[in-house]
Amino acid sequence: MRTLLQIFQETKEVLCRYDYYIYTQKSILHLTNSEIKIPHLMGMQYLGKPNQFTGDYGAYAIKKQRITMKSVEKLVRKYYKTEEKQRRMLEMLHRKLDNLGELGEMFSSYSSLYLYEKGKNRDSELQSDYLLVHEKGKKILHLGLVKSERGKDIYHCNSFMTTYQNDRDRDSFFRNLPYRYEITKIVRENKDTEHKEVIYQSMEAEHREKSGIEKMLVNAGIQADKKLINLIFRLNKKFGIYHTVDMLNDNEALLGKCGDKRAKNLAEDFLVLWEGNRSES
Asked: What are phi and psi of 141, to 5 degrees?
């Protein structure tokens, strides 16, 4: 069993090391988080006195191991009097803790990903502005996003829940949210290096982008074969930007963006084919 500290550190690696840009047909949501958001996602607000283990102090308590898996059970048994309430509380907490490790896959998976807009239904008890929902087998992961005070279209994570297909109320968090926006693309940006990479793209968005690449090459008088189109598409994903012909012609700048061997190999494979196709055109 993973410790609270391990769960905290793994969640921090996914949510705090990177920013995420979630593209829908409606808008682009910029998701950014700090470690003080994590205790709430772990369910620490249900332990002890109100807000005792959330925010700065919650993060500090977990990192210093002032609170552990063992103390979680002790606190539940202390603050919740009936056995049924204790059982339900521990089940809810373990659903959070056991599944937080799947957040990375939630952002990058090619399974169904949707945003449910809470603001269109004021009767919903959900305290988030949007709900990101991901189904994986029998699990349904729900990540709440709330608008930041920092600016328009900037969001933080403020809740995390897990339900299962056989739960009576499996869809309770989103059944009354009428507006649903399919995600077309998710770009992940490393906060330290500012390197961007497309980690999710819908099949429809991929088809549109490849069609756009083909038109761009034809307009530039460059032979647009399938292999070249696929390599440019992979470059776009790897660096999180749409490369124009001028950008593709700048060998030095392209190679200069490569932060690892895999990116360099991709760029070099592209340049070999690029030079050949330009020569034949």
From this structure: -95, 135
Helix (H, G, I), strand (E, B) or coil at 90: helix
Per residue in 110-157, pLDDT tens?
Answer: 667 788 887 666 666 677 888 899 988 899 999 999 999 877 789 999
Q: How confident is the model at residue 279 (pLDDT cuts 50, 70, 90)?
A: low
Could you report the per-residue pLDDT of 75-114, keeping only the tens digit for each?
999 999 999 999 999 999 999 999 999 999 999 886 677 8
- Name the pTM for this structure: 0.84
Q: Which residues pair with 189 in a beta bridge?
A: 19, 196
Rounded to whole angstroms, the Cα distance separating 111 from 200 reads 10
Farthest CA pair distance, the chain:
79
- DSSP E strands, 92-249: 113-117, 130-136, 139-147, 154-164, 180-190, 196-201
DSSP secondary structure letter of residue 100:
G
Report which of 198, 176, 192 is spatially closest to residue 243, judged by C-alpha positions: 198
User: What H or E segment, with its residue span, contains residue 21?
Assistant: strand 18-24
DSSP string, 67-88: S-HHHHHHHHHHH--SHHHHHH
Query: Residue 227, class by beta-carbon neighbours within 10 Å (0-12 exposed, 13-18 middle, 19+ buried)?
Result: exposed
Nearest C-alpha neighbor of 242 from the set 196, 275, 191: 196
* Phi, psi (rounded to 5 degrees) for 23: -95, 130
Say if CB 43 and CB 216 are below 8 A apart: no
pLDDT > 60? residue 200 = yes
